[in-house]
Design goal:
Layout lengths: L7 H4 L9 H34 L14 H9 L5 H5 L3 H5 L6 H19 L1
Length: 121
């Protein structure tokens, strides 16, 4: 059996020939957990695509937004490239980003509300 490198962490302790029921159970549990996570990411991606269809402004790159350099840098450091990436974070999540102060958070929140209100109109 050829081992998939993505499954290697799950398979490392499992011997298919002499594997114990405990190892099989652990493998099945771990595999189900990974599969559930993949399914959740897929569903999230579909929901995000639909949101972007309804609100094209969410596809706007962060670098093109009228935000301060600090706000853009905080979002870029967190891996956000578009407004859709920002929309998935709660205010609590955003506040945990490096160098994200209260005024920067308020600026981003105000801008996101403006974008979404414009899209609803």
């Amino acid at each position: 059996m050829e081992k998939n490198p993505l499954m290697a962490p799950l398979l490392k302790d499992f011997d298919w020939e002499t594997g114990s029921p405990e190892l099989r159970e652990r493998f099945e549990k771990d595999f189900r957990k990974e599969l559930d996570a993949l399914w959740e990411r897929f569903l999230f991606g579909v929901a995000l695509e639909r949101a972007q269809e309804r609100c094209p402004a969410l596809s706007t790159p962060i670098r093109d937004c009228p935000l301060s350099s600090r706000a853009k840098n905080c979002l870029a450091a967190a891996g956000a490239q578009t407004l859709a990436d920002v929309a998935v974070y709660s205010l609590r999540d955003l506040s945990a980003f490096r160098n994200m102060g209260a005024s920067t958070l308020e600026e981003i929140e105000r801008y996101m509300k403006e974008v979404l209100d414009t899209a609803r109109a």
